[in-house]
Fold:
Amino acid sequence: MTITNSGSGAIATHGGVASGAGGVAIGGSVYGGVKVQLPPNVELKGSRLPARNPLFVGRVKILDDLATLLANESALVVMTAPGGMGKTQTSIELGHCDADHFPGGVFFLNCLLSDISLEIAQCGSDGRLPLDDFDSRPHTDKVNLVLSEWRKPIARLIIMDNAEDPQVVKQWRSVIGGECRILVTTRRGAWSPSLTPHIIHLPQLD
Structure:
């Protein structure tokens, strides 16, 4: 690793990837403001999404409503219901059904984890971000590499599953950026309209 200086502060270079100071502090680490320059012809490809449930039925109107709202650039949509109502399965079904509308990929984040950045880092693994040394890089480096790709002008869907803290959603939304659409699934019923006016209550299946 080499260190150089620029007008915006120190830049650390790891095999062609440059990282500078800045961004938003989340969980003791800084994300989002780090300057990242990937080697030529390297870009994030594919999706990170659980397998489709072959037994999934219904929810046609909800899926249509979600797809309409998420067609808007940088949309944030919250789908809320008590536990066990099928929020997660509905979000996965949407991700598979509408994948063609998100050429940048669909990325599923399990927000039950105390550190969501662990999930974001995994979005670049398994060859999705084809760097030979991706898996051996520092954790914050992996996260910022993925975030740098998410900020590119291409439609992506980020599913934040079981996200119960609006402040956490707000923090990560501020650093995800780009043309990413975010779908939040949650048991929490009350969400501030200043964060998003798009709240969908998932009903029971008939």
